[in-house]
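Lecture 7 notes: from sequence to structure.

We start with a single chain of 369 residues. Read the sequence below before looking at the structure.
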Amino acid sequence: MTSLSTILKESWGLVEDRKDRVAAHFYARLFLSHPQLRELFPVQMDTQRARLLGAIVSAVQNFDNPEGIDGYLRSLGRDHRKFHVTPEHYAQVKVALIDAIRSHAGEQWTSVYEQAWNDVYDHIAATMTAGAAGDTNPPYWHAEVVHHERRGADVAVFTCRPLQPLAFRAGQYVSIECGYQPRLWRTYSIANAPRADGTLDFHVRAAGGGWVSGALVRRLRAGDMLRLAAPMGSMTLDPQSRRDIVFITGGTGLAPVKALLDELTRYNRTRWIHLFRGERQRDDFYDHEHLDRIAESFPWLTIVRAVSDEQGYPGERGAIPDVVSRHGPWRDHDFYVAGSAAMVNATLRRLTEMCIPSTRIKYDAFTDA
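Now the structure, written as tokens:
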């Protein structure tokens, strides 16, 4: 008997080379049938189309492991409260989505495919709805920017204070909306462990076409108000592990690692921590002085910096996965990887080659899209 996951992948294969048209058809059908829903979406829709397609592909690829994806879907349902999504909205989206896929699949579309997409969508919607219903937090938190500092041509570090308590764990991320780009939310990691004053630090790099990242770096000022969605992510410290730790970062992937280091400075006495930080040029190592002060205060922390594109750099050179490999072996360590999608994927491939069990690897990939 053909599995549901196989049927989904087969049917998606009928339209994958026309996925941009599928997205355009979906939104046209949705907004024509329910014009009031347009207000839930950002003014700029290019990135939103890409996000829809990413969500579809993710569901298709992961539905053969429903237990593994359910926790994520529940979190996603809680997160969607910031859009004021209701169960009725899920039903309206379902009609438009399946109509878009069916229309572009052509004559090869079958009743089996139709039923499979109905079943998988109903499961996703039910799980997300249950996650939202079980959440007692507000749909989002208002937060005031109390400090903003440029740390380079395209990097800013800012601190904000939520007006209501926001509980999170070091290593998690939140979606942020700013007044300069209404209804456009992007995810950023919190760069500190929970503090008594409730403030949160964020590191943002202005991506080439990033509407939100550009505004947060170049336009945000102290006194501005932000909206923060519920914390998500599982790149947190394992309280049961006693293994030493390897952090591998690039760019603003430093943010969640700084949060995890912040937590470790409060109680760690026995675990050796190795921080590998890769950048293209030495000038990209923002916050290096603060990290060096942490290493001076806590002898269990070792920092290795490497550049990939600068001739004459006196320290380590090369892609950061290669540098980590040279410093091994890492037979009994926990790994945390954060940075660009390309850097994270290259590092995960290298860790697999080094026979590091996937159960000892946590990661987050960052993109403004």
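The domain at 244-366 is CATH 3.40.50.80 (Rossmann fold). Keep this in mind for problem set 3.
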